């Protein structure tokens, strides 16, 4: 390890510790304290930042190294809010930033103050070295990704578009190293499913619970509808990123049914990765009915988490849902439609990530994937046509362990991966912006 590498490791470790020690649980967020910490850190290394806030306590930071002109621009994108943490469930203080056995513990260590810190240190270190890109290199640390009530990137895109309009962007969403069918791959997300939850309102007639025969129990009427949704298996289909993923892993084109069968029979990790990317998904998750035990409910509301494939629409899926549910005394209402975008492959940013993977593990392959959830990347794609990928290289931590720690107790990151991410973002910045 060179002196420079060692100092960057210490620098990013310290910055991540300082970020974790700031409680930015959303709600309420209070992300301004993180934005101010980053502004001061970047300013110490010659990088100017701007704070943009819809309300004073929920600021977004945007910093940049201006380009000379004539080159593509790149954003290193992140968010500073986190989900809640119950300290009683943890083996360390969730806001301590404690380093233990080469791992840094705390809420946000994986989602995603790790990427905030690594991107900030990549920007600061390049600035110290006199980096002069052809196109702008931008760093955005946004508020309100976890809840999405309009304080973060969507607000920036609408109210300060010139601050966040770039040709390319690197964000969260993938980067883990996986072994599939005996080969090494690093995942890079180029698309995401649409968060498209809906609500069923099932109607009946109220009555006293001691005389059920005089009422029409809406809760009971909802039960078979829930069972039909849970039992339904949508038609499988392939999108371009999933087709490319299958081609890269097995070396040939396969129909979705055959690809899923092969994965289930031979590689459990491949099956878990592939299955949610072949169809829209339905998961009934919330139900409300009577507020009193002795009152039979006249109304039962069921909320269903639904994720559509990129390019699918609610108008396309709703007739399918109604056919599955059948006739009944209910209504179906879509709650939101968020995400569902994709970026093309084979771009200069893809080449940059691919060459980084080759530099750290020449035998490994960069694998395009669709995110089963959603990220802030879709706001950039929708607003500006930005080519946005999700990639934070994770070589040291087992990907199944990491997935269990995100939004859970004992969240932590291996410091080797944190240092690797700084190298990755520095590499991508130089390769894409033409430094």
Which features characterize this protein?
alpha+beta; Aminopeptidase; Alpha-Beta Plaits; 2 domains; six-stranded mixed beta sheet; six-stranded antiparallel beta sheet; 14 helices
Overview of the structural elements:
With 435 residues, the chain is α+β, with helices and mostly antiparallel strands. The protein folds into 2 domains: 3-180 and 340-433, 3-Layer(aba) Sandwich (Aminopeptidase); 194-235 and 279-338, 2-Layer Sandwich (Alpha-Beta Plaits). The chain is built from 14 helices and 20 strands. A 6-stranded mixed β-sheet has the order 1-2-6-3-7-19, sandwiched between helices. Strands 10, 11, 13, 15, 16 and 17 form a 6-stranded antiparallel β-sheet that branches. Strand 1 (49-53) and strand 2 (59-65) form a beta hairpin. Helix 1 (3-20) packs across helix 3. It is globular. The mean pLDDT is 95.
């Amino acid at each position: 390890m060179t002196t420079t590498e060692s100092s960057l490791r210490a620098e990013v470790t310290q910055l991540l510790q300082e970020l974790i020690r700031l409680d930015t649980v959303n709600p309420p967020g209070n992300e301004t304290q993180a934005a101010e910490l980053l502004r001061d850190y970047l300013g110490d290394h010659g990088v100017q930042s701007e704070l943009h806030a819809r309300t004073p306590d929920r600021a977004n930071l945007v910093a940049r190294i201006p380009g000379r002109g004539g080159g593509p621009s790149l954003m290193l994108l992140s968010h500073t809010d986190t989900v809640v943490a119950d300290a009683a469930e943890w083996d360390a203080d969730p806001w301590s930033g404690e380093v233990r056995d080469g791992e840094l513990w705390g809420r946000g260590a994986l989602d995603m103050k790790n990427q905030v810190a690594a991107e900030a240190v990549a920007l600061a270190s390049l600035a110290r070295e006199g980096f002069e890109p052809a196109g702008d290199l931008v760093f955005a640390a946004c508020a309100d990704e976890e809840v999405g009530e309009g304080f973060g990137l969507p607000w920036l895109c609408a109210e300060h578009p010139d601050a966040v309009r770039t040709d390319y962007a690197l964000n969260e969403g993938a980067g883990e190293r996986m072994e599939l069918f005996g080969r090494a791959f690093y995942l890079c997300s180029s698309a995401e499913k649409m968060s498209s939850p809906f609500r069923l309102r099932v109607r009946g007639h109220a009555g006293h619970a001691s005389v059920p025969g005089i009422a029409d129990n809406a809760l009971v009427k909802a039960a078979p509808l829930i069972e039909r949704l849970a039992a339904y298996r949508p038609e499988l289909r392939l999108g371009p990123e999933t087709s490319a993923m299958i081609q890269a892993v097995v070396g040939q084109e396969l129909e979705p049914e055959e690809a899923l069968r092969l994965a289930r029979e031979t590689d459990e990790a491949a099956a878990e990765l592939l299955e949610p990317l072949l169809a829209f998904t339905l998961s009934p998750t919330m139900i409300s009915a009577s507020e009193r035990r002795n009152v039979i409910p006249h109304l039962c509301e069921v909320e269903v988490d639904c994720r559509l494939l990129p390019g699918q629409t609610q108008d396309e899926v709703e007739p399918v849902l109604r056919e599955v549910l059948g006739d009944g005394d209910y209504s179906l209402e879509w709650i939101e439609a968020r995400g569902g975008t994709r970026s093309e492959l084979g771009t200069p940013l893809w080449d940059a990530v691919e060459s980084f993977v080759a530099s750290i593990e020449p035998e490994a392959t960069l694998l395009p994937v669709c995110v089963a959830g959603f990220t802030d990347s879709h706001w950039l794609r929708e607003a500006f046509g930005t080519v946005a990928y999700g990639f934070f290289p994770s070589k040291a931590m087992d990907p199944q362990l990491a997935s269990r720690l995100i939004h859970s107790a004992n969240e932590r990151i291996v410091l080797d991966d944190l240092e690797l991410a700084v190298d990755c973002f520095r590499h991508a910045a130089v390769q894409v912006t033409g430094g």
